[in-house]
Design brief:
This protein is α+β, with helices and mostly antiparallel strands and 138 residues long. The chain has three helices and five strands; from the N terminus they run αβββαββα. The site of guanosine-5'-monophosphate has 13 residues, from β2. The site of guanosine-5'-monophosphate (5GP) has 13 residues, from β2.
Length: 138
């Protein structure tokens, strides 16, 4: 497997080199909003320590992420009165991965509402409000 590259965008977010809209963090994980949201409330959970994806992650990194995913997904479901949650996670380019630091996508879902296509920039004020709504239910 290709080595971890600490110039990836999420590593820069973790180092504070580029801004993010944080939902929550603990010692091991960070949850922040996706700025190209495919759903209202689309956010990402990442480990604070380096790994490319699920394939090279340690059991501890995966467990820490899942703990945060569970907490944030429930908060988002309540915040947006969602009917369900879609959890997405991609591994390597052929698996759909674009940013090579392990991350889990949390998508609040409503019956009959499809995910939007990737790559459409969201409105930052609206994204901030979604983060606040999730935070209020953590
Ligand atoms: P992947 O396809 O690797 O699972 O998804 C990477 C995700 O990172 C995409 O959903 C994309 O919208 C998101 N993303 C890309 N650049 C940035 C950024 O600078 N900030 C944030 N918050 N998300 C980003």
């Amino acid at each position: 497997m290709t080595a971890y590259d600490d110039e990836n965008i999420f590593a820069k977010i973790l180092r504070g080199e580029i801004p993010n809209v944080t939902v929550c963090e603990d010692d091991d994980t960070l949850c922040f909003m996706d700025i190209f949201p495919r759903s209202d409330g689309h956010c990402l959970v990442i480990p604070k320590t380096p790994c490319r994806n699920m394939l090279d992650a340690t059991p501890e990194q995966l467990a820490a992420c899942m703990k945060t995913v569970n907490r944030v997904a429930n908060a988002a479901k309540t915040a947006f009165d969602a009917d369900g949650i879609t959890l997405l996670q991609f591994n390597e380019a052929a698996g759909g991965q674009e940013v090579f630091h392990l991350h889990f996508h949390i998508h609040p879902r409503h019956e009959g509402v499809p995910l939007r296509p990737p790559g459409q920039a969201g409105d930052m004020a609206a994204i901030q409000k979604k983060a606040e709504a999730i935070r209020a239910h953590l």
